[in-house]
Prior knowledge:
It is a single chain. Helices cover 43% and strands 19% of the residues. It has a 5-stranded parallel β-sheet, sandwiched between helices. The protein has helices spanning 13-25, 39-56, 74-82, 105-113, 119-136, 148-157, 169-177, 197-200, 224-227, 240-255, 292-305, 320-329, 331-334, 342-357, and strands at residues 4-9, 30-36, 60-66, 84-89, 141-144, 188-191, 213-216, 219-220, 259-264, 272-278, 281-284, 307-310, 315-319, 337-338. The longest helix has 18 residues, at 39-56. The chain has 360 residues and is an alpha/beta fold. A hairpin with a 4-residue loop joins strand 12 and strand 13. Helix 5 crosses helix 6 (148-157). The N and C termini lie far apart (50 Å).
Amino acid sequence: MANCDILISGTGAFAARIAFDIAATASEPVEVVLAGRNRSRLNWLRTAANARSAMFKSKARFTAHAVDLLAAHASDGLLAATNPRILVQAASIQTSQVIAQSGNAWTRLVAEGGLSATAVFQALISSRVAAAITRGGKPVTLLNCSFPDVVNGMITAQGHDVACGMGNVAILSNVFAGSASVARDANIEVLAHYQNLAAWRQPPSSRSGRPPRVWIAGQEVADVFVRFADIQLTPEPVIEKPGARGVPLILAMAAGRSWSGHVPGPGGLPGGYPVQLKDGELELDLPQAVARDEAIAWNASFERENGLSIAVDGTAVFNGPLRTELVRHVPALAQGFHIRDLEAVCLELLTLRDRLLALP
């Protein structure tokens, strides 16, 4: 059985960004395993990451492990073969590029019902990995990169642990910190749900809806859209930002160092928060003016208005326009489902997706 510090599952753009930035910035020795089923892509990522490590004279070393994460017992086998301390789960059966695509009935449903239409797809591999960690009984820190604002709550509802995700709130906190309106040394704190990102993909004159909550030096910003009018995100997913932002946290976890910043889905909570890593534990680090329950309720309200929320008893409930869209296509499923039935629901929704992809 091999041992590694960090296991990255997935070979897509998000996983590549994480690997390449670890390669460029690791100041302490760290062993990284890249895992996925596309052997050609996997070998290229290993080669490029090691070359990048040599280029920047960092202390990261990368190896590859071929595995089909959708195969039976694949997650258990992967854990046994690599024995990781930290598992960064970046594989999914639904690409995030769907938000920038159009031309068929499926992309239209996602556009009108919201990205939570894909939550079950995003949760499939991550929930299997989390379950394998639980079965294995070893201390593995799981970071889920697949739609963590929602999926991490699905993982914890199944009885598994997840430390946090990457991206979303971290995208906004960092672009706000880089705004011309903010002093470079100012302390910035952000509460943000993934749904807050959509406004910043639009030009300033078209932004609307509820903005994220932002504090600068302890003072909450009264009009976030006005204060950060200079910020502009791309219409497609901002892969460069969330992948890069998660790397300092991953390396801090690997080295046992403290860290502070922003993450989505810490401990399975909905949405994103300021956090701190201390003595190996990740905890909320909220502005003094905001109580924990208030912050959680604020983030949870987005999915209750439109999306997928998880009840205390483990029932997943579709809400708002997303529920309306599903009623048109799968009325029985639109009523919700228990999280234990995730795999069966995923098959049903895959059938729906395939059918809608074929329709203009």
